[in-house]
From TrEMBL:
Naturally occurring in which organism (per UniProt): Klebsiella grimontii
Entry superkingdom: Bacteria
Protein name, UniProt field: Inner membrane protein
Length: 61
């Protein structure tokens, strides 16, 4: 988020072009998508692990 604020400030100062700002925003969107995907993968892995433990307990118990 701070990168976006920084980018808007730099655009206002004339240091970044509209295209530069658009690239910055696209990069931030891509990073957010990757983080969400990583969180989803971690949750799936945790659920699979829990399910395997439950199956193991059911078979052994």
């Amino acid at each position: 988020m701070t990168e976006i604020i920084y980018g808007v400030q730099e655009k206002t100062r004339g240091w970044l072009t509209h295209d530069d700002l658009a690239l910055l925003l696209q990069g931030q969107r891509d990073i957010a998508r990757i983080r969400a995907n990583n969180a989803h993968i971690a949750m799936q892995t945790h659920l699979q692990s829990t399910l395997l433990r439950l199956i193991d307990m059911a078979l052994l118990g």
